[in-house]
Amino acid sequence: MKTMPHFIGGEPRPSADGATFEDRAPATDLPLATLSRGAEADVDAAVSAARDALTGPWGDTTPEQRADLLDAIADGIEARFDELAQAESDDTGKPVSLARAVDIPRAVANFRFFAGAVRHDETGCHPMPGALNYTVRKPLGIVGLITPWNLPLYLLTWKVAPALGMGNTVVAKPSEVTPVTAGLLAEIIYDAGAPAGVFNLVHGFGAEAGQALVAHPDVDGISFTGGTATGAVVAATAASSFKKLSLELGGKNASVVFADCDFDATVAGVARAAFANQGQICLCGSRILVERSLHDRFVEALVAEVEATRAPGDPSDPATAFGSLVSPAHRAKVEGYVELARSEGGTIATGGRRPMLPAPHDAGAFYEATVVTGLAHDSRTATEEIFGPVATVHAFDTEEEAVAIANEVRYGLAGSVWTNDLRRAHRVAGAMESGMIWVNTWLKRDLRVPFGGVKDSGVGREGGRHSLEFFSESKNICVAL
Ligand code: NAD
Predict the structure, then answer these.
(1) Angle, to 10 degrees, between the axis of helix 180-191 and the axis of helix 152-165?
(2) 435 and 462 share one domain
């Protein structure tokens, strides 16, 4: 079993009070690592190391030098690819095939992409009669990065790369549920040559290390990805010290299927949208709205697709496509929602059970991919974020009704539209209240595009220049001619 300390000032360091916590593998419920449990004193030490680094030689680095560092970190991730993929799978329960295909390549891509973005960044110039304005970008300063458990390395690197690229120093607080790859990333960042204190890592719980980081008076900005209720606490804590804040929060996303869609591709795409990473992606389409004339045929095909392709299995087996949920506690939440679906009058078309797996996976947090039909589209099951492998299917009659149902939730993160009618695709995509819409696809990502949600799904955008802008302050200089 690994012992994983914090990383403060470029060095592994235990908690000031010696406290630790245990991280377990969800697919077996066996202990995986003992981690230092951060509190205010550890966050203080990390912020102080980040401040020292900011005022040291790091403050004089050029964008080119920082881009070179990001590329070296990407090289370091590639060099430890197998170890990282296995660690991510062990810590989250996700199939190692998914970690190898998505999580780790995306962590590499995040560093490579932002290396290029920083190298090619430009700022504005506004000539006026008698004067010239030009904009320069300054680092924000010390940024706190707080991340969730579903895509641990993928989402942390999505923040670390632009934060370092723009010249900030970082204090990261990964999810206490899946902290392992963040610890490995700290080693990689320092092996790549980062100056001491540029990247600091404090492990621990949200109410302790996370809260202390958000409340810290010397932290200049917080980039947070996590649940909506937590986001509200983070926003309230950060507000009194006017920290720059980015909030990427929860979702309950609709997949809107019209009768004229490409049937087979849509069934496969909607199933993937609902159940990728065991339904534990903020962008997952867990409310499937189907035009009434297609509804019964679609449900039948969806159930067949799910049963054929998403049998839960050992995440370490390269053939497994559907792993365990992230923890027994999270599975209990998911099971509670399936009970609620039953009590709300839903029919379990497939799933709705714990699978029987041989030891040691009989102790794991596995749950079948579950499709529920017959629920009211405004039922709790169909409108609250479950963040697990449970999708509900609802019939609609008109395009207007589909849009109205899609928009009746408090969230507005993402959605997808499946149709061959070009004009309708644009109309529906435009009318859905969410930050991101895919048409005839799902989770196709270009790292330049704005990423983020509306309504209770968050504030601000990440991606491309949006990340560069968040992690910097624009400053105008006006020169009289
Ligand atoms: P969570 O909100 O419970 O925790 C997220 C992080 O916040 C963790 O590191 C946690 O320790 C920390 N935290 C908790 N309380 C805190 C506090 N008071 N102050 C500071 N930090 C605190 O979320 P989770 O269960 O880890 O992740 C699941 C949620 O994340 C879902 O709602 C999902 O939709 C959302 N999510 C959103 C996106 C997005 O890009 N919008 C991406 C992934 C996940």
Answers:
(1) 30
(2) no
**Number of domains into which the chain is organized:** 2
Pick the residue whose CA is nearest to atom 40 on ligand 1: 248
- Residues 470, 362 within the same domain: no
Give the pLDDT confidence of 445-470 residue by residue, as tens digits: 999 999 999 999 999 999 999 999 99
261 as an active site residue: the answer is no
pTM of the predicted model, to two decimals?
0.98
Output the domain CATH number for residue 184: 3.40.605.10
Does any domain span residue 96?
yes
Whole-number pLDDT of residue 359: 98
> Closest ligand 1 atom to the C-alpha of 148?
26
Q: Residue 479 has which token pair?
A: 């020169």
Instruction: Give yes or no: 122 in active site.
Output: no
Q: Ligand 1 pocket test: which of 37, 146, 455 has the largest number of ligand atoms within 8 Å of its C-beta?
A: 146
Residues 82-138: tens digit of each pLDDT: 999 999 999 999 999 999 999 999 999 999 999 999 999 999 999 999 999 999 999
Same domain, 281 and 134: no
Whether 63 maps to a domain, the answer reads yes
Residues 190 and 332 in one domain: no
Q: Is residue 80 part of a domain?
A: yes
In angstroms, rounded to a whole number, what is the distance separating the alpha carbons of residues 136 and 125?
9
Residue 41 lies in a domain: yes
Same domain, 268 and 147: no
Residues spanned by the domain of 113 = 2-249+457-480
Q: Same domain for 334 and 259?
A: yes
Is the Cβ atom of 173 under 6 angstroms away from ligand 1? Answer: yes
